[in-house]
Design goal:
The protein has about 290 residues and is an alpha+beta fold. It contains twelve helices and six strands. It has a single domain, classed as Thiolase/Chalcone synthase (Peroxisomal Thiolase, Chain A, domain 1, 3-Layer(aba) Sandwich).
């Protein structure tokens, strides 16, 4: 159970029947996911993402070094965040030699659970102004559930169905944003998001990663706080980590290293993994107010 679950359990702790029922619900959250992965002799997020990662590597030629470059860059970005769980620099050699978890997933591919929270206000612009609050403008949002049900193994997400609408509503192109915050419980899903959100074509993620610098002052500022892989995943709050970080950057109030001249940002989310697809995906384009 993750940090957020404890609060729910505490609310019903006086009734053990409800507690047992809640725990049973958690253990069978996705019957479909169990049916899909258990015949392969595996189960759980690490094993599911191991299968997805291996399939992606086979399809598009991605290497562990490519995923490692993303993880190392995020660790560097996290070093200026005082609240990050991972406070020690990570080298590519350390990433490559880390103990295996579920081939080809190794230790530093896995998100770290922690306790924590993220929060923000949504209000009218005139209300924020009257209260003296700084903020950001929402240019566009998309959300998709249960996409690509016929894919035998996931190699794309729901963003691919909505990418045209996302950028059209925002009135801009992918190349126009100054920083990108992707959901990052495992590196392979970051690479999929980079492709499906329009920064390169499907299958070109590995080459894109090899060509970019992901530091806050680099060619492609990405997960500028360090993301969940270095800051930590505080249960459901992990989904807001990138959003709050993007807002801070656009308001010129970052906790860590600022992205120079940041005016626009893209934030994307992903969740509820099954072997063949994630049940939910979303994205938002934000701009300095």
């Amino acid at each position: 159970m993750q940090a957020g679950d404890a609060e729910i359990v505490a609310c019903v702790a006086g009734d053990t029947n409800h507690v047992d029922s809640f725990r049973k619900t958690l253990s069978t959250f996705s019957r479909f996911a169990q049916d899909a992965v258990y015949p392969y002799g595996s189960g759980g997020a690490n094993a599911s993402f191991a299968l997805i990662t291996k399939n992606y590597m086979n399809m598009y030629g991605a290497k562990r070094e490519d995923f490692g470059k993303l993880c190392v860059a995020q660790r560097d970005n996290a070093l200026s965040i005082p609240y990050a769980m991972m406070k020690k620099k990570l080298t590519l050699d350390e990433y490559m030699s880390a103990r295996p978890i579920a081939d080809p997933i190794h230790l530093f591919d896995c998100v770290m659970p922690c306790a924590g929270a993220e929060a923000f206000l949504v209000c009218r612009a005139d209300t924020a102004k009257s209260l003296g609050l700084s903020g950001v403008r929402i240019l566009s949002t998309v959300e998709r559930h249960n996409a690509f049900t016929n894919d035998p193994i996931q190699f794309r997400g729901g963003w691919a169905l909505d990418i045209g609408e996302l950028w059209t509503m925002a009135g801009m192109k992918a190349d126009d944003v100054d920083l990108v915050e992707t959901y990052d419980d495992y590196p392979v899903i970051m690479m999929m998001q980079i492709e499906d959100l329009g920064f390169c074509k499907k299958g070109e993620g590995p080459e894109f990663v090899r060509a970019q610098n992901f530091a806050n002052d680099g060619s492609f500022p990405h997960n500028t706080s360090g993301g969940q892989l270095s800051v930590g995943q505080a249960g459901a709050a992990g989904g807001f980590l990138g959003l709050v970080e993007a807002m801070r950057q656009l308001m010129s109030e970052p906790i860590g290293t600022p992205v120079p001249n940041a005016e626009t940002a893209l934030v994307s989310g992903f969740g509820m993994i099954n072997y063949d697809r994630g049940l939910s995906s979303c994205a938002a384009v934000l701009a300095r107010a």
